[in-house]
Amino acid sequence: MKISVNVKELREYFEGLAQIMRRVVKDPFNEDEQQASRLVQALRTAIREELWNDSAPPHSGHGGSVSPLKQPIERYVHRQVELTSFGGTIQGTITEVGEDYTEISEPDGTTVLVHLNQVISFQTQ
After folding, report:
1. What are the residue ranges of helices labelled H in 3-32?
2. How confident is the model at residue 102 (pLDDT cuts 50, 70, 90)?
3. pLDDT tens digits for range 47-97
4. Is 6 helix (H, G, I), strand (E, B) or coil?
5. Residue 38: Cβ within 10 Å count
């Protein structure tokens, strides 16, 4: 799976979604900034879980286990790589490696998140 993300647009999307949710939920805490922050965080968590459930193959055993590719890929942070996944080939610089994903910055500035369980191969450029 390949997700192209413009961080600023994504942040604006979540903030807009939170504003819509605040209007829909007619509770007295709508004006409370701390509660609004919790609502935004809950929305982010729900969307991440939904994306994970949609992208995890049936045999992946999504149970929070660390991918065996995490450690080898971590060695290439801030280096140019070509990564092949089920969603296609991505070329760019690895900027972050999480428990189950890697973040790659493509030459045009696009940020791509790839689940490590979707990686077929990778090599340095």
Report:
1. 7-24
2. very high
3. 777 666 655 554 444 445 677 888 899 999 999 999 998 888 999 999 999
4. coil
5. 12
Report the alpha-carbon distance of residue 106 to residue 52 in Å, rounded.
22
pLDDT at 12: 77
Q: Which two tokens stand for residue 7?
A: 């961080």
Residues 6+ apart with CB under 8 A from 91: 80, 81, 82, 83, 106, 107, 125
Structure tokens of 52? 């994970």
Q: How far apart are CA 91 and CA 80, in angstroms?
A: 7
| SS3 state at 79 | coil
What is the residue whose two structure tokens read 């604006």? 12
pLDDT at 63: 47
